[in-house]
Amino acid sequence: MSRFWSTIVHELDPYVPGEQPKGEKLVKLNTNENPYGPSPKVLAAIQSYDGDQLRLYPDPDAGDLKQAIADYYDLSRQQVFVGNGSDEVLAHIFHGLFQQSSPILFPDISYSFYPVYCGLYRIDYDLIPLDDALAINTADYVRENGGIIFPNPNAPTGRLLSLEEIEQLLKKNTDSVVVVDEAYIDFGGETAIALVDRYPNLLVTQTLSKSRSLAGLRIGFAVGHVDLIEALIRVKDSFNSYPLDSLAIAAGIAAFEDKAYFDETCQHVIRSREMVETELVQLGFDVIPSSANFVFARHQREDASVLAEGLRAEGVIVRHFKQMRIAQYLRITIGSEQENQRLIKVLNDLITD
Hints:
- By secondary structure, the chain is an alpha/beta fold.
- The chain has two domains: 7-37 and 260-352, Alpha-Beta Complex (Aspartate Aminotransferase, domain 1), CATH 3.90.1150.10; 41-258, Aspartate Aminotransferase, domain 2, CATH 3.40.640.10.
- 36% of the residues lie in helices and 15% in strands.
- The protein has eleven helices and twelve strands.
- It has helices spanning 7-11, 40-47, 63-73, 85-97, 114-121, 163-172, 226-236, 246-257, 259-282, 304-313, 337-352; strands spanning 27-29, 80-83, 104-107, 125-128, 148-151, 178-181, 202-207, 220-224, 285-288, 294-299, 316-320, 330-333.
- It has a five-stranded mixed beta sheet with strand order 1-11-12-10-9.
- It starts with 6 loop residues before the first helix and ends with a helix.
- 43% of the residues are buried.
């Protein structure tokens, strides 16, 4: 600690991202990256990019990318906000919409960046416990609040709320913003974007990191009523007017132009997830039903930390959380067919030895 730090810096408990090992030949199943590369149209857009454009500032509005997203979801461009990854979009949401007199609400087991944002922006919050099946019960959120946010599917559990459940919550919560964080929605869920025209307090966020394989370019977006989008733009332009570079904008546009590739790779991940779930059950795991590109599972006899260490010793990395309620679970990203087979083989050796 330094005596030159601002007071708030001493109080922060920063987010810890998943391990990104360097120089090791590992089966990396810990950060929910897509095993399949970006669309060929994205690669072509990058290869044909005019390098001379790098001397110029990008469009601060990223208008062409906003239009591509709006066209894809049948929205107006004014209903779309874009940022440097969905984490930046979420940060602007917390800063611009959640600094209220009442605490905001989110699940006790969820995306661990949420309490970090609350610490950074000094936002009061209440944790709403998942039920005994580690599921979100939307009835628990019908209470006074300064805003509501949850991932759908939830992370790290992978459980999905139906569109009907989300709409019931919106009908009962009309006086504060409800944010549905859809980082994994494309792997088995139905997006709540279909509801934004009916509920002016609904904001939906997504990322191009997962289903569109662009984690390295950092592109996220939110859609909602124009009043909510205006708030995010005002925060952005008070922080960084150029959050997306011109190369990322070009790649993002191309990603939305290749629906066939997107659908094909998402379905491939879903089929692989179902195979991994089946194999894990046969090895004695209890697996939570997942609609994401990962599974959340605990073994009926073996300790999760021991399994995680054993996998790592054999070159396979998975995510192990030490939070009390989920300390016996492993979150396992769905990898390529070869990576999935390696995972199952090593687990089989560990459990049968």
